[in-house]
Amino acid sequence: MENQIVSQTKNLENPTALSWVYILFNLKTREMNIALSFNLLNRFSNFDTAQKLVYCRNFSNPFDSLAHKFLLGNISVESVMHNIKQENPTLRDLSLQAAFFNLCRVAV
Predict the structure, then answer these.
(1) CA 62, CA 59: separation in Å to the nearest integer?
(2) Strand 19-26's sheet: what is its strand order?
(3) Which residue has the higher pLDDT, 27 or 70?
(4) What's the mean pLDDT in 67-86?
(5) How many structural domains are present in the chain?
(6) Is the pLDDT of residue 74 over 80?
(7) Which CB contacts under 8 angstroms, 24+ apart, belong to 86-90?
(8) Which residues contact 28 (CB under 8 A, 6 or more apart)?
């Protein structure tokens, strides 16, 4: 997953203008929340402790991020889980990894 995050932003002219599609999994309710953010770092402070970030993908074009969020929101739960497990097979929490990447990206 971290290789994908790095490779997606490696050649962007303005890396601070990214939008993020991410999926939070609520450990208590077992529900998934598909969301979009233009500043993922600020969103981390609003995450509930019962939630974990299981998927995130960045886009340089806001239209692409909206289309991806729409796609994930309109396919079956099984298809969404397949997509998540392709990038994050163990469903580990990616919050720290994404926060670290976001901090490094902004500092560039």
Answers:
(1) 7
(2) 32-37, 19-26, 51-59
(3) 70
(4) 95
(5) 1
(6) yes
(7) 87/1, 87/4, 87/55, 87/57, 88/1, 88/54, 88/55
(8) 50
Host domain of residue 7? 2-107
Identify the CATH number of the domain in which residue 12 sits: 3.40.1440.10
Q: How far is CA 85 from CA 45, 88, 90, 107, in A?
A: 25, 5, 7, 30
DSSP track, the chain: -HHHHHHHHTT-S-GGG-EEEEEEEETTT--EEEEEES-HHHHHTT--TTEEEEEEEEESSHHHHHHHHHHHHHS-HHHHHHHHHHH-TT----HHHHHHHHHHHHH-
